[in-house]
């Protein structure tokens, strides 16, 4: 009896995807709930699990574009499972002294279960996934586990490398080849499509201001230890910016609206999208009901989404329904930018790097940590006065954090 492996439905707007990687080979014996493949769509990357145990026969290859509901493999349930080694017949033998053969097979099994992202990091960083403690389902090693293992290695490991291992000049992919081509992933293609559409369909304009971050930085420094002790997470800048945006949206509701055909849809909730950079492209998971969350709740949501995004576990629901977006180019060193709208939203706030600059304070020149802010907005629905007022409200809340508590 053979069970078909079909591409599952992932959301109403997703009709197809590309098989990014097979985690098993044709003819392999697979266990129930084992990860078989990674499917990349225009919104998310998801994993496909085996519904039954048996020998798998692949009918689609890596890189193939497949429709939702398509059969990409079959599993023969009648096939016998691989015979176990004689040394594992009894528990007593297993407890007595594990053989090298058993240790090796366990290691190989753990290695076979890892994703392509984990294998890539293993090759680049020379880390054996079998020696990394996995935090994924059934103890699987995730990309986050590998990155953590790589960052925690002792500096002594670097010292052991021979001096001759200095970086070599970049070389072409192959002899005589000056360029290479690869197919654009569905996610990257969708990002490109949405960015171009946002610029073509909206009357997009950007206004700028700058904010003195002294008060926010002083607040974090004063209360960071107590905040971490109570909540288990650090107080970051992003949660304070989210609260400042929510406060400003309440004062200027025009930026919490969107155009739908010939109608203006006014939102009365505050689900804020936080742009997160991942190896596969930019994603914007949405933190729900930010007006009802405290700073700790927002920080925990952001951390959870960031981890899910980097491990490829973001779902459609995580990306849907935001009313406003915040993007932080400052973490990459950006001093100033004009962020593009995340349609159909009418506004997006761009944060930038903090730099100490001389500014005039009460007639005196002082060195202050300053950040440029940019808000891009849809001029079809938001007037310049509203956009400027919104940005001033954000600036005031950050320069005087007490305003966030009083909502003024």
Automatic annotation (TrEMBL):
**One Gene Ontology cellular component annotation held by this UniProt entry:** cytosol
Q: Which cofactor does it need?
A: (R)-lipoate
Comp. bias (Basic and acidic residues): 86-112, 120-146
Region entry Disordered, spans: 77-181
Q: Superkingdom of the source?
A: Bacteria
Keywords, comma-separated and alphabetical: Acyltransferase, Lipoyl, Transferase, Tricarboxylic acid cycle
So what EC number does this one have?
A: 2.3.1.61
Gene Ontology terms for molecular function: dihydrolipoyllysine-residue succinyltransferase activity
Metabolic or biological pathway: Amino-acid degradation; L-lysine degradation via saccharopine pathway; glutaryl-CoA from L-lysine: step 6/6
Q: What class of enzyme is it?
A: transferase
Residue ranges occupied by any Peripheral subunit-binding (PSBD) domain in the UniProt entry: 113-150
The UniProt entry's sequence similarity note says: Belongs to the 2-oxoacid dehydrogenase family.
Know the name of this protein?
A: Dihydrolipoyllysine-residue succinyltransferase component of 2-oxoglutarate dehydrogenase complex
Organism encoding this protein: Pelagicoccus enzymogenes
